[in-house]
């Protein structure tokens, strides 16, 4: 059974009753809620929802959060309105949209999917079975990067994550291959600790912020099989040097604020790299606000500033990986 509309929600008096209804319908006795934030690309949103509907082990609800999209979604709702829980909100960014989905999710697990990415048909079955078998609090899977320009969505690269398993902190601060559409979390963790949310107010690194908070206290299960397809659109924002500088600087600032004792676990060279990012971000911001430089000029300046911290993070990631082998 999939929770379809607000009217169907009203059939049940409490979230607990909804959860019990889902559990009776699930082949394995557990319910998975999938949260999909949406702003642009309704055609891709249709593909994303289809990939979830075609799972070999059905999920129990698909939550689509429209983050103030300017696009016409009437066609999407006509086709999929009976198969999703649909919510609209004022634009606040993907972190706020995902957090809205977390708040209304009623499943035993919460999984995430971006509106332009895809799940492999057996993703839910394999990931859920592995988590139940191991008793894992959260998990992630391998994934494929695919070319959105090719008609057949050809795979550009397959990302293996087999060694990114167990205790992630502080290693994940140096290098973090987690793809948001591959992550699944026990819902009880998110309900018991409201600090376990995506980083609102962060333009970049919102997802890394949540992974960081989860990694501070819980090991992760890695399923080293590509069960997700991540769309490559030109130069993905997360790969740009300016985005990396912003994300690293803000992540370190937030970590130092709420868990200063844990920030001390970072190597001295890594802490220097994070501080370098903070200084570089301040300089770039001042230059950007005082000049009418083109984006490519700012990006080239960002690459120059990011060389030193990038080398330090790579070195620390290598040393951390060696310790786990």
Q: What is the residue-mean pLDDT, rounded to a whole number? A: 88
> How would you classify the helix and strand content by structural class?
alpha/beta
What is the strand content?
A: 15-25%
Order of helices and strands: HHEHEHEHEEHEEHEHHEHHHH
Number of helices: 13
Supply database-style keywords.
325 residues, 13 helices, 9 strands, disordered N terminus
Describe the structure.
The protein is of the alpha/beta class and 325 residues long. Helix content is 47%, strand content 17%. The chain is built from 13 helices and nine strands. The chain has helices at residues 6-9, 15-25, 42-53, 74-80, 94-104, 123-134, 171-174, 187-192, 206-215, 241-258, 260-263, 268-290, 295-324; strands at residues 32-38, 61-67, 85-89, 109-112, 118-119, 138-147, 155-159, 184-186, 221-232. Strands 1, 2, 3, 4, 5, 6, 7, 8 and 9 form a nine-stranded mixed beta sheet that branches. The radius of gyration is 20 Å and the shape is globular. The relative contact order is 0.11. Mean pLDDT is 88; it is low at 1-27.
Q: What does this entry show, briefly?
A:
The protein is of the alpha/beta class and 325 residues long. It is 47% helix and 17% strand.
What's the helix and strand layout?
Elements: H1 6-9, H2 15-25, E1 32-38, H3 42-53, E2 61-67, H4 74-80, E3 85-89, H5 94-104, E4 109-112, E5 118-119, H6 123-134, E6 138-147, E7 155-159, H7 171-174, E8 184-186, H8 187-192, H9 206-215, E9 221-232, H10 241-258, H11 260-263, H12 268-290, H13 295-324
Parallel strand pairs: 1-2, 1-4, 2-3, 6-9
Antiparallel strand pairs: 4-8, 5-9, 6-7, 6-8
Helix pairs in contact: 9-10, 10-12, 10-13, 12-13
């Amino acid at each position: 059974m999939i929770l379809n509309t607000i009217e169907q929600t009203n059939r049940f008096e409490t979230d607990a009753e909804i959860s019990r209804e889902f559990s009776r319908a699930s082949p394995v006795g557990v319910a998975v809620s999938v949260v999909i934030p949406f702003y642009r690309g309704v055609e891709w949103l249709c593909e994303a929802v289809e990939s979830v509907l075609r799972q070999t082990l059905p999920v129990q609800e698909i939550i689509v959060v429209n983050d103030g999209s300017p696009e016409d979604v009437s066609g999407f709702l006509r086709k999929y309105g009976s198969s999703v829980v649909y919510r609209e909100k004022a634009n606040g960014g993907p972190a706020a949209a995902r957090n809205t989905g977390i708040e209304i999710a009623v499943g035993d697990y919460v999984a995430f999917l971006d509106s332009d990415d895809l799940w492999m048909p057996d993703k839910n079955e394999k990931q859920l079975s592995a988590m139940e078998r191991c008793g894992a609090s959260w998990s992630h899977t391998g994934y494929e990067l695919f070319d959105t320009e090719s008609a057949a969505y050809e795979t550009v690269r397959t990302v293996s994550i087999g060694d990114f398993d167990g205790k992630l902190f502080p290693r994940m601060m140096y290098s973090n291959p987690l793809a948001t559409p591959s992550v699944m979390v026990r819902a009880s963790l998110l309900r018991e600790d409201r600090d376990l949310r995506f980083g609102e107010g962060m333009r970049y690194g919102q997802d890394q912020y949540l992974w960081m908070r989860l990694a501070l206290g819980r090991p992760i299960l890695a399923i080293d099989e590509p069960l997700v397809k991540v769309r490559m659109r030109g130069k993905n924002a997360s790969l740009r040097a300016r985005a990396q500088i912003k994300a690293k600087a803000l992540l370190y600032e937030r970590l130092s604020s709420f868990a200063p004792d844990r920030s001390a676990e970072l190597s001295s060279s890594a802490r220097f790299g994070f501080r370098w990012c903070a200084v570089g971000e301040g300089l770039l911001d001042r230059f950007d606000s005082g000049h009418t430089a083109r984006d490519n000029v700012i990006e080239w300046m960002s690459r120059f500033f990011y060389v030193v911290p990038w080398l330090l993070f790579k070195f620390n990631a290598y040393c951390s990986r060696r310790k786990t082998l």
